[in-house]
Specification:
The chain has 649 residues and is of the alpha/beta class. Helix content is 60%, strand content 9%. It is built from 26 helices and eight strands.
């Protein structure tokens, strides 16, 4: 699939959007259809619950009068236009980190570009942590609200089906999370065509109602949204709190850019997804104008009676795809956070031999599942969950555009007036969304804040705790030069073979190496110290990953290998030896004959806490449950030894 590989510059921001050349369209068709399944699953299923939430009984101030319907539909259209089409599709997609997107990838890009501005980098890191934390809230709420809203269509067919909504929703979600460990490669091939059929269905549902009441097309004019806000500010304020649900999942345009490339995503959006959503919302508006009683579930009311059962089944399938996309996004986000030092090592399982982005993280999967089950049990309806959903979406949007504007100002040097236009148009709309949703904190909005607070606390605690451990570890290990001098004069016995010591730097002595001398008084004839360097880019080409450095200790049989990986790359230490072998070092770096020695620290509470006691307990728990280094580095268990020491924090 094509990917965007050139980092955006100020000139690209100034350039206008151009449709791809006709000769390129056939080549872009396949990735564009695939993007429909992964990128637009969430936003594509928003019509299931968005307008229903606007006109729900809880929002009794928003009655379905002609003025209100026109105002709401106009708000919906221009919110999608400004936030999705302008902010994300045309602007934010230009900010790629070697082809990858997402708020953490953007923070990593800023960290590499603004080394001379540590305060800006730190502020961006904080925003990245908050954005990633809110995404976890989104990852819990999206499967619950999407699947429940689809299953609730049964109550439109027959109100007697209402008792089946909760158990059916839980059953579908349980199966969805249970099959994650098998990967999505096979099923994923059908995601794009299914979602293409879904968007075509949205068009088929909306067009008859627009044709029956074509005056609704007037709602495309922004003056209806402005008139609604001026004449009825209270109702408009409440409506905006729910209108934000029409742009849920927009962050997927950016987060999934590395899988498809910006051009296929834009093509899929402007050619099908955007027109289909516009027609669907216009169709619902036209139907409500004709029959205000349809506000109880406007999406399913658009369908004729005979089509509602098939539509419920199709909607359930579409929401499963939307849920799959956000779950996969949580896996990718977690791996990025781990590589950027915000989470401990995770057991990452690659579910596809061909696609490196298809991964499974069991701990994250089941944490999400427990969260989904709990919130379904607490809220029990998609309408109640909508109050919680809006705050997660608005917070993520606002943080994403803020970090993007920091990049545009400090790195691309975009003219201030252009940034001001973006602030007025985009930030103005998103701040309005945020303020409108703050009123819902007591009615469910607390949920994403709670989830984000827990996630942010964990990430910040791990980052600070790991920095403290690294500093103390360096003191214990001591300088490598001094260690080499010691073994030269101590007549240490050398034994045949190659010993590999994964170690974060070339300055200090690997703890396992020092402990081997202290306890066994022997040393292998050949020693390779391998330093894994996590770069602020998604991928490092294989041929550029491993480099052999002569630290002046070749006569002692010791070399150092720098093993550079991106935050989406696997940490294959044996492969590092193979690639380093291509440089022709004096020793044979055969990974199949090497013995691997891992340094391990057993952390225990100290007399003087280096962190507040409750945060220290969190850090110690995270450290104890981090992924096994043998697994993380893909080492052969039969030829791997773990040697360690105790450290108090």
């Amino acid at each position: 699939m094509p990917t965007a590989t050139v980092t955006a510059t100020a000139s690209t921001l100034r350039a206008g959007f151009h449709l791809p050349q006709p000769r390129r369209l056939p080549a872009l068709a396949v990735p564009a259809v695939s993007a429909l399944g992964v990128v637009f699953g969430d936003i594509g299923t928003s019509p299931l619950y968005a307008l229903q939430t606007v006109f729900s009984a809880a929002h009794n101030a928003v009655e379905p009068s002609r003025e209100v319907v026109y105002g709401v539909v106009s708000m919906v259209f221009w919110s999608i236009t400004i936030v999705v089409s302008y902010a994300y599709a045309l602007l934010i997609l230009r900010a790629d980190n070697h082809g990858e997107g997402g708020i953490l990838a953007l923070v990593a890009l800023l960290r590499s570009k603004l080394t001379a501005r540590p305060r800006v980098v730190f502020a961006s890191l904080v925003m990245g942590i908050l954005g990633a934390s809110l995404f976890y809230g989104d990852s819990v709420i999206t499967p619950a609200i999407s699947v429940m809203s689809a299953v609730e269509g049964l109550t439109v067919v027959n109100p007697g089906f209402e008792p089946l909504v909760l158990p059916l929703s839980l059953m579908i979600l349980t199966v969805l999370f249970a099959i994650q460990r098998f990967g999505t490669g096979t099923v994923g091939r059908f995601f794009g065509p299914v979602m293409a059929g879904w968007f075509i269905t949205l068009i088929a549902l909306g067009l008859p109602h627009i044709a029956a009441n074509p005056e609704i097309l007037g709602a495309l004019s922004p003056h209806h949204a402005l008139a609604f806000a001026i004449s009825r500010p209270g109702s408009a304020f409440i409506a905006m709190g729910a209108v934000v649900l029409t742009v849920t999942g927009v962050e997927a345009l950016y987060a999934d850019m590395g899988h498809f490339g910006r051009t296929p995503i834009r093509l899929a959006w402007f050619a099908l997804a955007f027109p289909a959503l516009t027609i669907a919302y216009l169709g619902m508006g036209a139907m409500i104008l004709r029959d205000p009683t349809t506000i109880d579930n406007p999406f399913f009311r658009m369908a004729p009676d005979w089509a509602r059962i098939p539509l419920v089944v199709f909607a359930a399938l579409a929401t499963v795809i939307a849920s799959q996309a956000v779950i996969s996004g949580a896996f990718s986000m977690s791996r990025q956070a781990s590589r950027l030092g915000l989470l401990p090592r995770l057991n990452v399982v690659h579910t596809s031999p061909a696609e490196g982005g298809q991964i499974y993280i069991g701990a994250i999967n089941w944490i999400l599942y427990v969260g989904v089950v709990l919130i379904i049990a607490v809220f029990q309806s998609s309408q109640a969950l909508a109050n919680a959903y809006g705050l997660a979406v608005t917070g993520t949007l606002l943080l994403g555009i803020t970090v993007f504007l920091v990049l545009a100002h400090f790195v691309w040097r975009v003219e201030p007036w252009k940034i001001a236009v973006a602030v007025v148009l985009i930030v103005g709309v998103e701040v309005t969304f945020l303020v409108a949703n703050l009123a819902k904190i007591l009615h469910g909005g607390w949920l994403p804040l709670l989830i984000a607070s827990i996630a942010a606390t964990i990430m910040w605690t791990w980052r600070q705790g790991q920095q403290l451990v690294d500093a103390k570890r360096r003191q214990i290990e001591g300088p490598l030069a001094g260690f080499i001098k010691m073994i030269r004069t101590s007549n240490v016995r050398r034994v045949p073979g190659l010993a590999v010591f994964p170690h974060p730097n070339a300055d200090t002595t690997p703890l396992a190496l020092r402990q081997t001398i202290d306890f066994y008084a022997v040393l292998h004839e050949h020693i390779a110290i391998v330093s894994i360097v996590n770069q602020d880019v998604p991928h490092i080409p294989h041929v550029e990953r491993a480099r052999v450095h002569d630290l002046g200790y070749r006569d002692d049989g010791i070399i150092h290998i720098t093993y550079r990986v991106g935050f989406n790359d696997s940490q294959l230490v044996p492969a590092a030896l193979e690639w380093a072998n291509q440089e022709g070092p004096e020793m044979d770096l055969d990974p199949d004959k090497a013995h691997y020695f891992l340094s391990s620290l057993r952390l225990t509470p100290g007399d003087v806490p280096s962190l507040p006691p409750w945060r220290r307990r969190i850090f110690l728990w995270l450290s104890a449950n981090a992924a096994n280094l043998t697994t993380a580095f893909h080492l052969p268990p039969a030829r791997t030894a773990v040697v360690g020491a105790n450290l108090q924090i």
